[in-house]
Specification:
alpha/beta, 2 domains
Length: 252
């Protein structure tokens, strides 16, 4: 009888104790999930490049592809690097969103958006697509650290001259010779939020650049346009700017 009474006392106090421990357990899980959803840990930097014209995204003749290869080689982990044809802007947009989705739930939280560290660059039509992608990300509340345009040529329906306010820094390299030449001026939609680092002109009348690897028709009809694409002076500056964003957020 004594043993039965003891067992009843244990069960009497055990039930509410187990209930209390269960409540504490679930509350702890909820607090961890809440903290994870609202903490803004910086994500891996994302570097997106766009090639111009009808160039393939793996064509290593072009400096856009070479730059991506350099960064991938020097940062085998911790940096996401992608190169796209300029007609693949929608695909680039989707892949950027996927890379930002840290918990892979199919939706970006405000913390995941805030943690974005993105640099975008391109040549010719690819430079136009650079601004278009930045603008699309801005509509979703996603910041961009840097955009770089090299001899930007606007695609139909795109505005490559007005930099959206979600971009912290932007720079434009161009030349003004030949049948095909780039936009000479970019400006900020909101100068209080976007710093234009420069509109930098290059001249290839006397400063010739080797373009022997390009097709004959490109050398004949658009030589200055491909000279700026092949100019190591330009691309060393582009690469230096992008690398400066791989470790820290942009300083306006």
């Amino acid at each position: 009888m004594a043993r039965v009474m003891l067992w009843m006392r244990v069960r009497y106090f055990q039930a509410p104790l187990l209930g209390l421990l269960t409540v504490i357990f679930w509350l702890s899980l909820s607090s961890v999930a809440f903290a994870g959803a609202n903490s803004a840990r910086p994500s891996d930097p994302i570097v997106v490049g766009f090639v111009g014209g009808r160039v393939g995204h793996t064509n290593a003749i072009h400096s856009e592809v070479q730059l991506a290869n350099h960064i991938e080689h020097d940062y085998p982990s911790g940096v996401q690097v992608r190169v796209f044809e300029n007609r693949r802007g929608a695909q680039a947009h989707r892949e950027v969103l996927q890379m930002l989705d840290a918990n892979a739930d199919g939706e970006l939280s405000s913390a995941e958006k805030t943690a974005a560290r993105i640099a975008i660059y391109g040549h010719s039509w690819g430079a136009s697509e650079t601004v278009t992608l930045a603008r699309a990300l801005g509509k979703e509340g996603i910041p961009v650290l840097l955009t770089v345009q090299v001899d930007s040529v606007a695609k139909n329906g795109e505005d490559d001259g007005l930099i959206p306010a979600n971009v912290a820094q932007a720079i434009n390299f161009y030349q003004s010779d030949g049948l095909l030449h780039g936009r000479p001026l970019i400006r900020a939609n909101d100068p209080s939020r976007t710093r234009i680092l420069g509109n930098v002109q290059f001249d290839y009348k006397t400063n010739k650049v080797d373009c022997s690897a390009y097709p004959w028709y490109a050398r004949l009809f658009m030589k200055p346009h491909i000279e700026i694409e092949s100019d190591p002076r330009v691309w060393s500056r582009v690469e230096s700017l992008i690398r400066s964003k791989l470790q820290a957020r942009a300083v306006r």
